[in-house]
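User: Could you check the structure of this?
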Amino acid sequence: MEFLGYFVSILIGVSLGLIGSGGSILTVPMLVYIFGTDAVSATAYSLFIVGLTALVGSFDYFRKNLVNVKTAIVFGIPSIIAVFLTRAYVVPAIPHTIMTIGDFVLTKHVLLLLLFAVLMLLSSYSMIKKKKETPNDENSQQVFNYPLILVEGLLVGTVTGLVGAGGGFLIIPALVLLSKLPMKEAVGTSLVIIAAKSLIGFFGESSETFIDWPLMLKISGFAIAGILVGSALSKKIDGAKLKPAFGYFVLLMGIYIIVKELIFK
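Assistant: Sure, the predicted structure tokens are below.
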């Protein structure tokens, strides 16, 4: 099982390197179901693993001048604030036992996993559906839709804080539609935003959360190796063609979590 976990860790990095999103959606299920971590700790570990991996992956995009720093700041600030406050105050405030219906007990652990499963279903849909190609004029002046960017940034930050996922599937479309970035530049900028908000969110974690540093660093190492492989493969493979297949896998994983936590618990 440990070997399987490290293999999945590599896949997380490969996915981030190839398509700029999707990888982090595997991190929490891997930590919970393969390494036996509780949901609260798993979402915290995921922030660190995804943040560090995205940071390493962003270096290549910086080198190729495919990171729009202004956009990363405008979008990143509300997102960073939201994820920090969510990890520091909202998650610790959720009671251990939320409600009981007959024999079913909705605990904090189950709630976070169900929220994560819903995010997986939404993420899978965004990866499976075919997008219409809309050409971007790279020489046109960039115009920010500040109110929408603020709302989107707060939403992504809150989601990241609750479930520990980077939210690349939400960030990349927002950067393309709201900031008018070309797709490759949106991917590079997304990695920078994911890195910043995830790592800052992790260090805003409640002191009550147990952190298994050796496990977290080992998984991070495999994920970083994966993103380096994914970045290299992206030069030869069109990540967009792999997205639907990965989307169906994420869909099945989301359904599995819902069924396991609600029916076969």
